[in-house]
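A quick aside before the break. I want you to see a complete sequence-to-structure record at least once, exactly as it would be stored in a machine-readable document. Don't worry about memorizing anything.
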Amino acid sequence: MLTLYHTPISPNSRRVWITLLEKGLDFELIEVKLDGEQFKPEFLALNPFHHIPVLVDDDFNVVESLAILDYLEAKYPTPAMLPKDAKDLAIVRMVQLVSINELLPAATTFLPQMLGLPGGDPEKMEKAQQKIAKVLKFLENLLDDRPYFVSHNLTLTDIVAGTIVPVLPSIGVALGEYPKINAWCDRLMARPSWQTTQATPERMAAFKSMIAARMS
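That is the input. The structure line, written in tokens, reads:
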């Protein structure tokens, strides 16, 4: 039995949750509240680095979201979510790593504003906006006439980038200058897996309260 320890608001968790849904797998969801539960001995026994998500498959624990996605693809290869073509596989890895290493940290700079909280360094925000624009241009150029990155079907590329890019308008980043990305986001948001895993207003309110408490 697969068990996913996750936090609904987390893009790292969400990409695994979406993959499980898209592959049609049976799994159990266990929410980890990041107000201290991640430091409890029972969770540290699953992941000593106290991060989510963690996937437990019987007696095997997998940490780090990209490792979890690769594990799921290797063990449950239907439907296939990674291409065989060398160029397409390179695009998968580029999009995944640029999304996680470049785009997500830049977007996180605007977290206080997204949550309606005070704070934010104008100089850092300007640099973050420039970084986001650079990443979006890069992604726009990688999209071709196929409906998804590298495929006519959803792949792990789309799942990783698609848990970050569609959130950008909520921090004031318009996608109108990127027509391919805009259309791609619309296709993702229409999928049941994205709708099922979308953070509810209640979840957002609870997350805002937790962040506000940490900042006070």
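Two observations worth writing down. DSSP finds ten helices and four strands in the chain. Strands lie at 2-6, 27-31, 54-57, 60-63. We'll return to this after the break.
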